Amino acid sequence: VQLVESGGGLVQPGGSLRLSCAASGFTFSQYAMHWYRQAPGKERELVATIGRAGGAAYADSVKGRFTLSRDNAKKSLSLQMNSLKSEDTAVYYCNVVRFSVDYWGQGTQVTVSS
């Protein structure tokens, strides 16, 4: 299993970023996928989840601002993040759970600052 995140960077408050996760090594379409984030000094938290058919759920802190989608043919995830706030600053991780084992990408840094 390999998960590779991309798309992070520095953005001003109110700005937007689009994160991507490229998956390989497993049958992508058969698994729910997740985005987590971890801010300095804080625990990793679940940001959004998308089911096999594309239905998504979000943490209250990002609801209405973030949109998670998947392309099963391309084995990829996209997390569109709008109206970014300083508290969204974190390393963002793509995740899948297979046979009760968590798999993680290397993470991509998102920094929201003026």
Write the layout of secondary structure elements.
Blueprint: E1 2-6, E2 9-11, E3 17-24, E4 33-38, E5 45-50, E6 56-58, E7 66-71, E8 76-81, E9 90-98, E10 101-104, E11 108-112
Parallel strand pairs: 2-11
Antiparallel strand pairs: 1-3, 3-8, 4-5, 4-9, 5-6, 7-8, 9-10, 9-11
Brief sketch in words of this structure:
The protein is mostly beta strands. The chain has strands spanning 2-6, 9-11, 17-24, 33-38, 45-50, 56-58, 66-71, 76-81, 90-98, 101-104, 108-112.
Rg, Å, rounded: 13 Å
Mean pLDDT over the full residue set: 97
Low-confidence segments, ≥5 residues, pLDDT <50? none
Going by helix content, strand content and strand pairing, the class is mainly beta
Helix content: under 10%
Largest sheet: 7 strands, mixed
Shape category: globular
Tell how many strands the DSSP assignment holds.
11
Helix segment count?
A: 0
Intertermini distance: 37 Å
Question: Beta-sheet strand percentage?
Answer: over 45%
The sequence of SSEs as H and E is EEEEEEEEEEE
Would you kindly provide a written description of the structure presented here, covering whatever features stand out?
The N and C termini lie far apart (37 Å). It contains no helices and eleven strands. The strands form two sheets. Strands 2, 4, 5, 6, 9, 10 and 11 form a seven-stranded mixed β-sheet that branches. Strands 1-3-8-7 form a four-stranded antiparallel β-sheet, with no helix packed on it. The model has no long low-confidence stretch (mean pLDDT 97). It is mainly β and 114 residues long.
